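Researcher: I'd like a candidate sequence for this fold, 244 residues long. If you have to choose between options at a position, lean toward the conservative one.
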């Protein structure tokens, strides 16, 4: 599947996965190393999995430093393209509070040449502003999709600041009523509902980057095709009402 990623011309891979970063890193390295010059690998730190496979915070300086070095070793890289600091729980949402300590650790590793760019995941607008005062933030990865747009203000603020917004769960959270509107547009355009939902995100703002996960090559190709799907104004109006 990952060789298909290169064939499709996708320019970035997010190593976050429910199976854990080590498994994904090993697959990426086996499939794609040596990496093409135009391929950028984005990884995420700030969490770990326990014996019960639950996600737990791992934000101490020692844990963050170890995570960066493990990613470097597993991926076979001298520097990581982008490292996102994950704050809070994906299921619960961002955890309010200062992130100056852990983000400062990553900024220090960046100054050592181990990280090229820094990002954030599962954060509030205040935390983005706090991190920006410490070092440049190039991307924010938060829960956002056609049906759940609580982060509309943060998305717009990131666009103003030139920060990429990378929605996770870009295809989740649709009620039957919402799905009917999505299916209506998809049928009219001769596309799948998933393609339309992804295309809506790309139309929503020019700073959005997509990371729809899949384990099937067919779905990967379908997802990639969403980048070329044009949504007419009347279709966008229907879709905008889905999350209203």
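Model: Candidate sequence:
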């Amino acid at each position: 599947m990952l060789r298909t990623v290169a064939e499709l011309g996708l320019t970035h891979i997010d190593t976050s996965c429910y199976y854990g970063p080590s498994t994904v890193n090993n697959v990426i390295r086996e499939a794609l190393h040596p990496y093409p010059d135009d391929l950028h690998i984005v990884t995420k730190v700030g969490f770990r999995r326990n014996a019960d496979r639950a996600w737990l915070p791992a934000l101490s300086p020692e844990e963050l430093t170890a995570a960066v070095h493990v990613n470097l070793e597993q991926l076979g890289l001298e520097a990581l393209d982008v490292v996102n600091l994950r704050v809070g729980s994906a299921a619960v949402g961002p955890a309010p509070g200062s992130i100056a300590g852990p983000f400062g650790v990553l900024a220090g590793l960046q100054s050592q040449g181990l990280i090229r760019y820094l990002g954030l995941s599962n954060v509030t607008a205040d935390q983005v502003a706090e991190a920006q005062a410490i070092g440049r933030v190039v991307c924010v990865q938060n829960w956002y999709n056609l049906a759940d747009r609580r982060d509309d203000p943060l998305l717009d603020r990131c666009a103003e600041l030139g920060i990429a917004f990378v929605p996770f769960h870009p295809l989740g959270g649709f009620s039957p009523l919402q799905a009917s509107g999505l299916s209506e547009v998809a049928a009219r355009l001769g596309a799948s509902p998933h393609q339309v939902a992804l295309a809506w995100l790309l139309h929503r703002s020019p700073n959005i980057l997509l990371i729809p996960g899949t384990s099937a090559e067919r779905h990967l190709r379908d997802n990639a095709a969403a980048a070329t799907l044009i949504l007419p104004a009347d279709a966008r109006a229907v879709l905008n009402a889905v999350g209203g």
